[in-house]
Amino acid sequence: MAAGADVRTVVVLNDYCHVQGGASRVAVDEAVALAHQGVEVIFLGAVGPVCDELKNAPLRTVCLGQPELLNVGKNPGVMLQGLWNAKAGQAMAQILQPLNPATTVVHLHGYTKALTTSPVRAATDKGFAVVCTLHDFYTACPNGAFFDFQQRCACPKRGLSLACVTTNCDKRQFVHKAYRVVRSVAQRTLGHLPSAVKHYITLSENSRRLLQPYLPADASYYPLENINEVPQRPPVAVAANQKIMAVGRLDIEKGVETLIEAARQAEVQVTFVGDGPLRPLVEAAPHCRVTGWVDAAQVMQELEQARCLVFASLWYETYGLVVTEAAARGIPAIVSTISAASERITDGVEGWHVAAGDVAGLAAALRKLKDDTAVQQAGAAAYRRFWANPPTRASHVAGLFATYERILSTGPKAAAR
Fold first, then answer.
1. d(CA 5, CA 405)
2. pTM
3. Which of 120, 217, 230, 316 has the greatest CB tally within 10 Å of its CB?
4. Whether 374 contacts 239, CB under 8 Å
5. What confidence tens digit (pLDDT) does each residue in 199-217 have?
6. Could you read off the pLDDT of 365-416 as tens digits, one per residue?
7. What would the DSSP string read from start to end of 35-83?
8. DSSP class of residue 161?
């Protein structure tokens, strides 16, 4: 596909110049794909090293070589940098100097670990159009999840309200929550995010609904699924498999404890593919197995042996990629209704819904997996739904171009402000 006539340059903003997590994966994949379509791509990131994908693509990478917040022990100054990264703002101003706002889009991905919103301010001040992919909830919630880690449940409080600011909901200590609050205030007052950004790419209807009250009233939203380009192969013979699987970080918000207890009640075995703070708890359960972190190819190998995937998240999530990956192989899923992944599973068709944290409900769903026919039918339905409209690289890039062109068609200053 050729680039749209009006889209000549895309400046990609992301904390990392390598794949550190889901947002970085999308940022790198999109930058490389756009560059190969003939668009001038400039990738601005704070934390190195620069990955091979960016090095080998026909694009320009500006890596500031800065530490991230996790390195605060070795670099105390990163706490100030994490509030307002002046160097990133200056670099952005230099990048934009020769560019034309009428043909340039600035695309924001991750910014809370090192980059901050200083490049966003540099762009909007100069009248450039900015679009933000909503990978998380940081535009509204200080801890980025709308989740109370102390109470182990979704948080109903309005972000940055008095009730929010005075509640210790952080995964660590209240001092970490206080820092996140200050960072959120800086993001809004100095960085003008979200007030000056009127364009948002959404990964799910659930995340859009949660964030919309916090975003500008005249904001525009562009639904676009993450790339999940996998070769089409015959579906997994799920009814012949015995493994019930969970894939991801072993942490509180992922519903690990709920799944362990539900599996015990249902008298089924569960394989956890991943690692995290709750790994000792999983390893102590006689009916559970844990693999630790494995690469993407090994994840797919594990899924080949799966009867069903369980996605028991206690928080909203913004997408839940593993549910889509499982569907591509004809594997049904049990998903919590609170998570965005539930949008891609019709209860009783491609899998089953359960309420977040409902041990008895999850145990009941796990017992349904003893029915070979039900499992086979759900897997077949998941496979058909995925391959009816697969989120390929080509379709994703086409969606990006369409989004950029719509943004630029409003005029650069109108698009940015």
1. 8
2. 0.92
3. 120
4. no
5. 999 999 999 999 999 999 9
6. 999 999 999 999 999 999 999 999 999 999 999 999 999 999 999 865 545 4
7. HHTT-EEEEEEEE-PPPHHHHTSSSEEEE--PPPGGGTTT-TTHHHHTT
8. S
